[in-house]
Amino acid sequence: MNLQIQHLYDIARKPDRRIIGLMSGTSLDGLDVALCRISGSGLETTVVLERFATVPYDDDLKNEIRTIFAKTTIVFEQLCLLNPYIGRLHGQLILDCLHDWDIDPREIDAVASHGQTVYHAPKSQHRRDKFPNATLQIGDGDHVAAVTGIITFSDFRQKHIAHGGEGAPLAVYGDYFMFSKLGENRILLNMGGIANFTYLPADGDASTVFTTDTGPGNTLLDAYARKFLNKPYDEDGRLAAQGQVNPNLLRALKTNPFFDAVFPKTTGPEVFNVAYVEEAQARSQTTNLPAVDMMATLVQFSADTIADAIRRILLNSNNEKKEGDFCIYMSGGGAHNPELTGRLEKLLPNCAFGLTDSLGINGDAKEAVLFAVLANESLVGGNTYFGNRQGVPTVTMGKVSFPQ
Ligand SMILES: Nc1ncnc2c1ncn2[C@@H]1O[C@H](COP(=O)(O)OP(=O)(O)OP(=O)(O)O)[C@@H](O)[C@H]1O
Ligand SMILES: CC(=O)N[C@H]1[C@@H]2OC[C@@H](O2)[C@@H](O)[C@@H]1O[C@H](C)C(=O)O
Questions:
Q1: 196: Cβ below 6 Å to ligand 2?
Q2: CA of 191, nearest ligand number
Q3: What is this model's ipTM?
Q4: 192 CA to middle of ligand 2, Å?
Q5: DSSP 57
Q6: Could you say which residues bind ATP here (predicted)?
Q7: Which residues contact 105 (CB under 8 A, 6 or more apart)?
Q8: Domain covering 172-359: architecture
């Protein structure tokens, strides 16, 4: 037997595993590195987050990625070059973190690498009948494995698509395994570049678990912070706090087929970008708004569309349910923006709000942890049946790269 297969088998038989989850999201702010100790699988999964770091991306890397990120027309060579480059870089960043944490790479059982999404194209967006849902993450796992010497799981989203999903949100699986609680209807709301949520029913029934993207989280706020402030984001929503929401622009922003489409659905900066806002401004004759009003309107746009999506679920899931029966646990960078969270709380006054941190997982680390949980599930789980629910196919995900 190939010794690496034997090694994989041995890892699967261990009582617990140390898995490093990696996530680099649509905000391009950096690489989240979460070292997890995981035992069990499915609803028996227990995760201890031993270490966590976000390694910021430097401007050079951000600019290299932006030349192809969410663009329909690119220089193909750039995509080809970035694929191994990002894989090698992520591998090196893992080694740097382990060095800082004084941990020998040989103590790590596996890496679970999301890679960098460069294009997301669900069918509802590309609208070409003969093509399926599609998404592309780069930073090939073979390079991560070769650089670190650690077995690497990567490219998690293709299996989801192969079984009828849109390749996202994948958080639903880890959310269910880690945060499902009998007796409490939970909504796990992640506000990264794009916002999404998982609904976890109080009866714990996997076949009614639900997930969807809701639209922009921070992606437009960041784009306009770069423009108005020359900063990566509007810290604590300070600029937005000084402005007034413009109702005409807000209405124009909310007029898009994505918001009327049925759940579950996914999106990305391919749709929600500066051109989208400029087109809405032209339509609503609001091209000369002051920066503060632009920011206030964009933050309200994110809050309104998140709240609308959650309200629709509260009604859809069971007409008797009331907002008061739901607890919303927030995570992702948007949870640090009081302008966003404050508006959300006003829009959903009867829901209880908290942070994922109160459930034992740092909200900034949550997505990276989720990929570690997905790799663990591929190794030792796969026994949870999610029913025929669209968006949550019953599959395990991640391709295996051996270091040698
Ligand atoms: N103090 C803060 N004030 C305002 N916004 C903040 C603050 N801290 C973080 N953010 C926002 O959070 C963003 C980063 O969020 P996060 O790391 O969750 O995104 P991501 O994982 O890249 O996105 P996605 O989940 O869509 O892939 C920043 O770009 C910024 O917009
Ligand atoms: C294609 C892609 O990278 N989608 C991301 C993105 O960032 C947030 C939202 O859009 C979510 O659907 C997804 O990531 C998380 C980790 C997910 O799949 O759950």
A1: yes
A2: 1
A3: 0.97
A4: 8
A5: P
A6: 25-32
A7: 94, 95, 98, 148, 149, 150
A8: 2-Layer Sandwich (3.30)
Cβ neighbours for 241, distance < 8 A, ≥ 6 positions apart? 296, 339
Residues forming a β-bridge with 56: 30
The residue extents of the domains of the chain are: 3-167+365-401, 172-359
The per-residue b/e assignment along 327-353, b for 16 or more CB within 10 angstroms, e otherwise, is: bbbbbbbbbbbebbbebbbebbeebeb
What architecture does CATH give domain 3-167+365-401? 2-Layer Sandwich (3.30)
Q: What is the structure's pLDDT at 326?
A: 87
Please give the pLDDT value at position 324: 61
- Planar angle of CA 381, 386, 388, nearest 5 degrees: 140
Displacement of CA 141 from its chain's centroid (Å): 19
- pLDDT for res 320: 58
The list of the chain residues with pLDDT below 50 reads none
One-letter amino acid of 62: K
Tell me: the pLDDT tens digits for 269-320? 999 999 999 999 999 999 999 999 999 999 999 999 999 999 988 766 555 5
